[in-house]
Amino acid sequence: MGFDNDLIRFLETKRTYRKFKQDPIPGDALRAILTAGQLYSSGGNRQGIKYVVVNKPEDVMVVNNFVKWAAYLPPEQGTPGPSEIPVMFIAVVQDTSVGPASDTEAGLAIGNMQFAAWACGVGSCIMGAIDRPKLMSYLKIPEDMLLHSMIAFGYPLKEARPVEFNGDLKYYLDDGGNTCVPKRPIDEIYRFL
Ligand SMILES: Cc1cc2nc3c(=O)[nH]c(=O)nc-3n(C[C@H](O)[C@H](O)[C@H](O)COP(=O)(O)O)c2cc1C
After folding, report:
1. 129 C-alpha vs ligand 1 centroid, how far in Å?
2. pTM for this predicted structure
3. In this predicted structure, what is the pLDDT of residue 95?
4. Which domain holds residue 54?
5. Whose CA is nearest to atom 1 of ligand 1?
6. 88 lines ligand 1 (CB under 6 A)
7. I need a surface site. Which of 117, 140, 146, 169 has the fewest CB within 10 A?
8. Could you tell me if residue 86 is inside a domain?
9. Which residues contact 123 (CB under 8 A, 6 or more apart)?
């Protein structure tokens, strides 16, 4: 989208992915994702973010019933079919017993995991539209912890790319089923004092 260096090209393709091959995530990629979730910056270095990894197919199938995909797309376009669901979810949990783990910290931890995953070719989707009570129960998350979000992972079946913003923020699929994500222009979102 204009500026060209390796990191920017990486960030352009590190989009949200919602339909996945059913290949499992290999051990080295999984270790990279988990390590990235350890290495985020944290206020007072409290590190109050905890995780529940869901990667057994039968558990993934259950958890997939408790998340909502792609609010801007009709289900036949935005919701993965049974052979397109993620192969792993990670629950991001704020552990209140070690002090206030903020949403900022959750976001940094999630970003780290998404970057590490994408560096291994694994796509992901942050899921905030989730059935928290059902997930807390299924994942056995203690009541004094907060389920921040679920992150879905897998090798993408389709591509995704940022596109020019033409007044409509809704992402859409192109003719090949690849996701196009409008991004507001640089001069709209920055102001130099
Ligand atoms: C906090 C947050 C919550 C989100 N929740 C959902 C969700 O519940 N379901 C979903 O399909 N996508 C969800 N997304 C993905 C967004 O729709 C996506 O980030 C947005 O459309 C921009 O696309 P991009 O990530 O490729 O830039 C969420 C993203 C964020 C940051």
Report:
1. 9
2. 0.97
3. 94
4. 6-158
5. 128
6. no
7. 140
8. yes
9. 15, 16, 17, 20, 117, 153, 154, 155, 156, 160
Q: What is the pLDDT of residue 4?
A: 79
Tell me whether residue 132 is in a domain. yes
Q: Does residue 173 belong to any structural domain of this protein?
A: no
Give every residue of the chain whose pLDDT is below 70, as ranges: 1-2
DSSP state of 16: B
pLDDT at 141: 98
Q: Name the residue of 108, 126, 150, 181 to mutate for ligand 1: max ligand atoms within 8 A of Cβ.
A: 126
* 180 close to ligand 1 (CB < 6 Angstrom): no
The position carrying tokens 């988990």 is 34
Number of folded domains that form the chain? 1
| Residue 169 counted as domain residue | no
What local confidence, expressed as pLDDT, does residue 99 receive? 79
Nearest 5°: the CA angle 73, 67, 88 is 105
**pLDDT at res. 1:** 58
Ligand 1 lined by 125 (C-beta under 6 Å): yes
Q: In CATH, what number is assigned to the domain containing residue 43?
A: 3.40.109.10
C-alpha to C-alpha distance for 148 and 128, rounded to whole angstroms: 7
Tell me how far the alpha carbon of residue 125 lies from the centroid of ligand 1, in angstroms: 6
